[in-house]
Amino acid sequence: MTYLDPDSEGSLEANTIRLFEEIGWKSTDCYHETFGANSTLGRETSEQVVLERRLRQAIENFNPGITPLAIDLAVEELTKDRSVLSSVRANQETFKLLRDGVKVQVRRDDDQENVELIRIVDWNNPANNDFFLASQLWISGDYGRKRADLVGFVNGIPFLFVELKASHRSLENAFKYNLSDYRSTVPQIFWHNALIILSNGSKSRIGSMTAGWEHFAEWKKINDEGEEGIVSLDTMIRGVCEPCRLLDLVENFTLYSEAEGETAKLIAKNHQFLGVNNAIEATEEIKANRGKLGVFWHTQGSGKSYSMVFFSQKVLRKLPGNWTFLIVTDREDLDGQIYRNFASTGAVLEDETSIRAQSAEHLKKLLNSEDHRYLFTLIQKFRTDDGKPYPKLSDRSDIIVITDEAHRSQYDAFALNMRNALPNAAFIGFTGTPLMAGEERTKQVFGDYVSIYNFKQSIDDGNTVPLYYENRIPELQLTNPNLTEDMAEIIDSAELDEDQQKTLERDFAREYQLITREDRLDRIAQDLVAHFVGRGVLAKAMVISIDKATTVRMYDKVQKYWKAALLRLQTECAGADPADKPVIKPNYLSTDEDRRVAVDSIRVARRIAAQPALAKYRPVEYLPGPTVGNDDAALLKAAGDIGTTIFHPVGTAKMGRATDAMAVVDERLRLIGLERLRVVDASVMPTITSGNTNAPTTMIAEKGAAMIREDAHA
């Protein structure tokens, strides 16, 4: 019998396998797997990542009467080579096939073509699926052979990738080195991947195949938000990999977000998964709660807007009905921002102008005469003059109103109007801050809390940075010593009458003069400038003043003292000893030579991108688009939009072996006298690799440098 050190990776793997078996998975040690006929898993070679034997059986089970030809076509579509795509594009393509089914064209007995939709996963009945865990699974790729700790297959599809380290090993290193090596060496294991788990036993994190380390998150709770959060592998496996939860997480809590030419795969975090499912339960009880789905309080920075998408998408997929979601905000910029969040994830496919209500009549038309899944409007559209009742817009009972920052005063003022306009609709309020005393009308419309993820929880989970308070300028001599209590009473009061308003204005006027007096604002401005000049790190600041007029005054004062501080520092620097002077990096594109090189570099990058030999790396996607002309002015603007940092001309930020590429390219460019080409950003020249981290780095670097040399000499 082999002894396993309790702190070793082997012991952790054995315990993990035991956990999977307890929640319904079958497992096999594949270290000595055989291939070919009568093989252990049915694989012909170790390059195959889909277990076709299990996949075919699942397809046959879920699609009664299916023909062998249809099965063959579905398997072929799922297992085809996707190396010409970036890994995330391949993953997005297979995800749609797994979630929605595979369409295959077959010929019927009457010789007519027929399109059949083949189900791969039974999402509604998890127990009908095959959950299989392979340990020590060998996988081969074009660039080497790897042995994965644990790979979880659902109906033969590799959904889970689990990387384990000994308890004394850094979990972050498992991401930086082990996972990165898998991504570049055997990328095909991630083409179908649903999620990745990293663990050293005491710490565990979950993330998507595109997530950076900062987006790998802990999973602390299993069933309910009220549980005590526990960071453990046991909680992770039971909370994520139990068949019902796993299929729910994959089907309803997975998004692909398109932003700035990049695609990111997003998986819900623990608080989003639990919170949205609470809201789904409330929606299932829509008649019992009379459409009051609740207040969804998740603190700012915790992904509240994505929770809206998860909620609405799950309702559309899992709850019967012709649902329409009306997203209501109280600011024009916020309205556009939320639309873009929905559009970037593919939830909304319609043009913004066609689904943003411009008036009450327009909203009425959109709700009743047109078929839309999502509509967007401002709360101000529910305003009436002289207290007149708001007209009814729709009697439909399958409308769900989603409001952002539902507790703000505008919602209190117009809540009744919303109810009158949509008497049979359901309402759910999303907010980043808790309801305060005096906001009872919000509860009357939306109900009580349906989910809570507060500021402290978000800080503990690393989703929100800590907030520290420092009282820097406390000197205020007030005749009213009870300012704090008075202000609290004002905040807590709802709808002041005329006499109260006059009293407020009279009492507050004296304190306002003290708060905004000139010498006090000067001292605050000086303190702000001194603080940020002396911090030693780049940072942002937000100055909140008592009113707009004071805000403008503060801006002018900060500008005044900031210029004075810069002049003082420049004078000190000019008179300093040369050895003590800081090295100041010149501004990007600040000289005619920099501008000329940047423009020429983009032209070179475009010509390189057109080379057939590089077509598989899809470089054109990252170059200035066809609407950007080839004249100097247009390309210079494109170069200025790129950024301010000097990068190497190969996509070093996106490559598994970046340092190798940098060294090769540096040397090639030095030899041919084109060192200055490094002024091009990684999203322009680098498109030789286009984020394809499995590209043979050194080969691509050499090919790119050779093409640069040939182009320069042409």
Short description:
With 714 residues, this protein is α/β, with parallel strands linked by helices.
How would you sum up this structure, described in words?
It is a single chain. This protein has 714 residues and is of the alpha/beta class. It folds into 4 domains: 9-252, no CATH class; 268-460, P-loop containing nucleotide triphosphate hydrolases (Rossmann fold), CATH 3.40.50; 483-574, no CATH class; 592-713, no CATH class. Helices cover 42% and strands 14% of the residues. The protein contains 23 helices and 16 strands. It has helices at 9-22, 52-62, 68-79, 87-100, 171-185, 233-241, 243-252, 270-284, 304-318, 332-344, 352-355, 360-368, 409-421, 440-446, 455-460, 483-492, 498-515, 518-533, 548-574, 592-609, 632-642, 658-671, 697-713; strands spanning 26-29, 102-107, 113-118, 131-141, 144-154, 157-164, 195-199, 204-207, 254-259, 262-267, 292-298, 324-329, 374-378, 399-404, 426-431, 449-453. The strands form 4 sheets. It has a 6-stranded mixed sheet, with helices on both faces. β5 (144-154) and β6 (157-164) form a beta hairpin. It is globular, with a radius of gyration of 30 Å. The relative contact order is 0.06.
